[in-house]
Each structure stands twice: as C-alpha cells, then as structure tokens.
Amino acid sequence: MHLLSITWNFDPVAFTIFGLEVRYYGLMWVAAILIGARFFDNFCRREGLPSKVSDSIFVYGTVATIVGARLGHCLFYDTMEYLRQPWTIVTGFRDGGLASHGAAIGLLIGLWLFSRKNRLPYVWSLDRIMIPVGIGGAAALLKRLAATSAPKWITADGSIDREVLQEYLEQCKRIYDIQMDSLDQEMVATYEERMGRLAEYYGVGMEQIDWEVYLDLMSYLGKEQHMMIGWMCAQYGYLELESLSRNEASKDAKVIPMQGQCTKVFKPATMLAVSAASGQIDAAKDFMSTFLSAEVQSEYDGLPLNQNAFDIQFTPKEDIMGAEGEYTSLYTTDADGNGIGYTMYWPSDETIAAFKQELSELTTAYVPDQMLEGAVFKQGAGYMQGEQTIEQALDEIEKAVAIYMAE
C-alpha cells in the first residue's frame, strides 16, 4: 500500500530588499487589503459617495484587520506566554503570528467604528465590504438554467429521475467552476452589488426571480456583465435581441437559443382550464374564446398564441419608425458614468416570419414547480460549492420532496 504524502519545505521568503525579508504571507495580506479597498472604492463611486468615505474605510479596515489578526493569534494560540511578556505582541510581530479569524473579528469592529464616524448604517458597510463568491450565487445560476431541463426531472410515474437530475447538476457545476476560475473579480463584485439592489427592490432573492432578457440588457451594455441569460417574453424583448448586432456597443454579440435537457421549450404566462365538474361549461368556454381572441391577445403583455394577434403585435407603427428602421431607443451609463445609447430597430418581414414559425414549433411547456425546484436549487448549490457530494445532494432532494411527490 502506498500512501500519498506531501513534504512541506516551502521557502516562505518571496524576496529580500536591503536585508529585509518580504514573505509570501505578507504579500497576500497586502493584496487582500488593496483588492478589498478597490471594491469598496467602486461601490462608493457608483453610489455617489465622496472619496473621503472610501479613504476612511481603507484606514479603518487596514488597521482593524492587522490589529485583529495579531491579537487573535496572541490570544487564541499562546495566551499565557503573551500575558507574561505582553510587549512581544508588538516586538515579536516579525517572528510571525497573524490569525485570519482574529482579522475577521477586528474588521467587524473596525466597520462598526467606520459606520459611526461616517453616519452610515452598519448593515450597509457589511454588505459592501463582503467580497462576492459568485454571479448571483450558485442557486441563482441553477435557477437561470433550469427552465430548459426541469420538465425532464420527473418520470412518467411521478418520481424523480435521478440520472437526469444528476446530469443537470454536474453540467451546472462545470459552468459554475469555469465562471469562478475565469471571471474578473471586479466584474463579479459589480454584478453582485446589482443583484443586491434588485433583490431589495423585488423583495426576494435572485434565485426566485424569473429572468427576462431585458433585466440584463442594460448591465450588458454597461459592461457590468458579459452574458445575458433569460426569457424573451414579449415583442420588445425580441426587438432588443434582434437589434444587438446593429448597435456599436453590442455589435459582436451573438444570440443563441438556450438548449438543455429539453428542446423547444416555452413558458406559459397564463394557464386556463375548465373544470369537468363545472355547471356552466358554456360560459367557461365563452370566456376561453374571448381570452384567446386576437383582440385580447394582441393587448396582452407577452407573446400571443393567436396567430392574428401575433400579426397585430408585429405590425409597426409607421409614424414612429425612422428611415433606417429605428423604432425606439434606450439609454444607460457604464460604471464610469459614460452614456451608452441603444437603438431598437424593426426587423424585416422575413425575420418576423421566421420567428413566428419558430414559435409555432414550441412543444414543451415549462411550468415552475416551486417545491421541487426549491430543493434542487438549495441542495444543488451545496454540491456546486463543495459542501456535499452529488449523491448526498440527490438524496437530500428526494428526502425534501418525498411527501410532496407522493401526493
């Protein structure tokens, strides 16, 4: 039997300047402080706060982190020795001894003092000093990618298809790992801050929001993110996507229908049914006919089932269309405050006809199942973040929905 082992004889000294040893550990501390300061400075600029706020957090944060790290080491690891020789807390600094958990405690205290000094809510400071761990988090990524796969998770007899669900979670983890390994961290921070604002606005977490493309378009144009994922839910969403290649800010963008474990997926905006036990079947049928009529469907905020309603929605108003097909415009700014204009162009008749044909071929309905998906997102996030194995995640999902599925 051969046991794997590591011989740890790593030289901690990175380089020497004028006889002073500069160690890797110290460089990591400096890098962490400078990167954190950069994030916070970006938050302050985006929220219109004066530069003195950013300068202040740098001072408070740096001092509190270093003092907390040193005291944490002295108190947690060799308490009696430092109590006998308390001066070595300072004089013995070069001999080593910084504790990350002491730094965390020190930073919390430093942030409290900073918040009092600058008259800012303590929670505000905590939110913005935290370095993000993912775009919308693992659960939000699972949510965005679920629609084109979820209809396959349940078998014909109403049980969970473990093999299909395992494949979905493993593919999502691949995407998540690549994302976390390759994304620019400043972009991650900016995106996470935006997610926080949206969560506050909608009152729910990002993993609970049904993402439409237009929610991401402004951030994409402002270069807060490099990809949009979501539903194209209405006529204006189609115009936005079709106009990407005709705008300078997005001329290199490509629109790709998202494929998952299912194909030709659509999401019903409204579901109607007539109960077989109803005593007013004729009235119910009349309501259905009215609801599905061209007159009603053409005014509905969504893509209509009625073919005539589609033609009405996709007939342009000639009085507002420009000579080059310009139909309407949007405006946003990037992180530096530079204005970015976006013009939506009316597509050609051939393009609209092809889109209409594509819609008519959609056959798989995605109907969100909050109980099942909630379990998948929660346990799947744990798996993606390395907190449990794929088998453990699947077992926990089945356990969480066992009674629900039986009913």
Task: Describe this structure as you would to a colleague.
- It is built from 17 helices and 6 strands.
- The protein is mainly α.
- The chain has a domain at 13-129.
- The strands form 3 sheets. Strands 1-2 form a two-stranded antiparallel ribbon.
- The two termini are 51 Å apart.
- Residues 1-9 and 131-136 have low confidence and may be disordered.
Q: What characterizes the major β-sheet?
A: 2 strands, antiparallel
Secondary structure class reads: mainly alpha
Strands, count? 6
Mean pLDDT: 78
Strand order of the largest sheet: 1-2
Order of helices and strands: EEHHHHHHHHHHHEHHHEEHEHH
Number of helices: 17
Which regions contain 5 or more consecutive residues with pLDDT less than 50? 1-9, 131-136
Which percent band covers the strand fraction?
5-15%
Into which percent range does the helicity of residues fall? 40-55%
- Using only C-alpha atoms, the radius of gyration works out to 28 Å
Task: Identify the overall geometry.
Answer: globular
Distance between termini? Answer: 51 Å
